[in-house]
Specification:
This protein is an all-alpha fold. The chain is built from seven helices and no strands.
């Protein structure tokens, strides 16, 4: 009993020390700035790229243009993953830590996989496979518990 109380107190002190560090708040700020930067980029992409800006009309490559148009909902999670990937080495270089930015990128990657499964896959079995197999695999990879294959 004494060991568990003492270990809890040590863990509590470490948590408080970590919550008071400037690096944590700098990482939170960089994540917020990255996410706030992603939305205007996605809005500009959807406005300026013709395939994303309007519903495709029947004609040449209609099916391909329709699928690309439907995929515009994936631009935001893709931009989140890309910009957080760029923010990771910047955070490491300037703040000395990047674990929280990598974690946010991992959450964005899981969100992207989930959106792909729910957006593009019409077969219920394959959709369940993506949600119950691929999303947990992405989480394991993000946490570093899954080796590179």
């Amino acid at each position: 009993m004494e060991w568990s109380t003492e270990s809890l107190m040590i863990a509590w002190r470490e948590l408080l020390t970590h919550l008071q560090s400037a690096e944590l708040y700098l990482q939170i700020g960089s994540i917020a700035a990255t996410l706030l930067l992603a939305w205007p980029i996605v809005v500009q992409m959807t406005r300026r790229i013709g395939v994303f800006s309007g519903e495709p009309q029947p004609g040449a490559f209609f099916e391909a243009r329709s699928k690309i148009y439907r995929g515009r909902g994936l631009l935001t999670p893709i931009m989140f993953v890309l910009l957080l990937g760029a923010a990771t080495p910047i955070s490491q270089a300037f703040f000395g830590e990047s674990w929280l930015v990598r974690g946010a990128q991992g959450v964005a990657l899981v969100y992207l996989v989930y959106r792909i499964a729910s957006h593009f896959i019409g077969n219920a079995t394959v959709n369940l496979f993506f949600k119950w197999i691929c999303v947990p695999l992405a989480v394991l990879y993000i946490l570093g518990w899954l080796d590179d294959v």
